[in-house]
Amino acid sequence: MLPKKYTWLVLLSIISLNEALRVLVWFPLFSKSHNILGRGVVNHLLKAGHEVVHVTSMPQKAPLPNLTEIDLSSIEEAFKQDKESNEHFKLKNLVGQKNFGDSIFFLYLSYEINKVSLEHEAVQTFLADPKQKFDAVILEWFFSDFIAGIAPLFNAPLIWMGSTEAHWQVLKLVDEIPNPAYSVDLFSVKRPPLTFWERMVELWTLAKRYVIINGVVVPFEKRLYNTIFPDLAAKRGVTMPGYDDAVYNASLMYLYSHPSIGTPFRLPQNAKYVGGYHVDTEVKALPKDLQKIMDEAKDGVIYFSMGSNLKSVDMTENMRNSLLKMFSKLKQKVIWKFEEDLQNVPANIHLVKWAPQQSILAHPNLKMFITHGGQLSTTEAIHFGVPVVGIPVFGDQYVNTKSAVDKGFCISVTLAEDMSDDIYAAVQEILRNPAYKTKAKELSAIFHDRPMKPGEELVYWLEYVVRTHGAKHLRSPAVNVPMYQKLFLDLLLIVVVGSYVLCKIKQKVFGKRKADKPVKSGKKTKTN
Ligand SMILES: *[C@@H]1O[C@H](CO)[C@@H](O)[C@H](O)[C@H]1NC(C)=O
């Protein structure tokens, strides 16, 4: 029993520990998967009793207490008008393409998306409003750094969300560029250990992107930063720090990954793996028809979905028909996320326009998941311990799939018009060989073996950052060391210049003697 006079102290500390914070959650991308991640953050914060303002282009229909949404859905409408871009992302047009993540077009696109979100009228009004105050700002990082300027507007600690596996572009914001000899680019198709040529390719990829980003993208970003933020700051009565001071001032970096599914990167103290936080804590019941199909499938069920961005509807007719034919040869039931009704679908295939993915993955009769290898799908597969056939299409899907293959719970298939035979072979191998499922279960156990659930951890570190006024003590000293100092280029310069000067001196002094020498030796011959 505590002495009575301490009880009020204890009570007070409980109250102050649970003090509600006001958090800005910036997830403006109009993409279903990014929105799932944004909502996940919002829901965990609300559950912990905090108040949230969510900048989103996919607002929820029903309002929730303590949640305000800044609605950016008009951006999606505008981009939908852009027929050319839309065609670009269709499954049939991505067959045989190079990963467009590694292109100038992608850099331009991501810059544009961030710019349009920041310039949106609703965002501008909101950011300029001096009544808005926040204890912390969470920004989804999407290939642009300049949005870091949002945090100093509110004088609040900056927390980045890196919504993929770790990679150099996010790690440089809180630490430094990792060594390309064992840390691959997000759009790479390799994983360590790397061969000689693979290392050369990684070095080249990094050097190329580094030069393009610093030479082209950053100047654009700086100009935008210096046009947008000072006005907003003036309206709020604060002054903006310089671009670099804002960008490299993060208190924390969340990474949507986990070593069980990805690469165990060497991370600074303020980078935290929170992969899996978006998965519901309780599995929702399946719709009746799916429940019946899955319960009664005595040979098991195969689930096929290319995710929310890539639509199966956008396959060529040829590809779709050959897949239908191939699936019809299986004894298993096939649940295929297909966004339209089709005629004459074979009896063992069940098309769904929307798939309750987590509930399907949780069903004991599920044999495997055929997926595009998106980070959320891969994570959910491991959350539920399901083996995978991976058909990567773009972005980080190659890295994720390669990782899954290396870890032993996945067979990868190349996206092609005539891939159905390869998928069939992969499916048969996973059905026949129990190693894939065993591995998926083993990794699932590792995935869940953490001191805290990822959603709780996410909330914990946010509260920690606020409690410690920006967690300055966790920051890596590397973040403030310029590249030339890390590479000791200043030392190199001293050595080169020093050697040159020494050479010159030597030439002057000894050169003279040398010039004297023949005379001396001449004297010698004479005397001899
Ligand atoms: C950097 O972050 C800390 C902690 O949130 C804050 O106190 C400081 O003002 C920030 N500095 C700049 C230049 O924004």
From TrEMBL:
Molecular-function annotations in GO: UDP-glycosyltransferase activity
Keywords, sorted A to Z: Glycosyltransferase, Membrane, Transferase, Transmembrane, Transmembrane helix
Domain of life: Eukaryota
Pfam families: UDPGT
SUPFAM superfamilies, per database record: UDP-Glycosyltransferase/glycogen phosphorylase
Family in the record: Belongs to the UDP-glycosyltransferase family.
PANTHER family attached to this UniProt entry: EG:EG0003.4 PROTEIN-RELATED
Protein name: UDP-glycosyltransferase UGT40AM2
Biological source species: Ostrinia furnacalis (Asian corn borer)
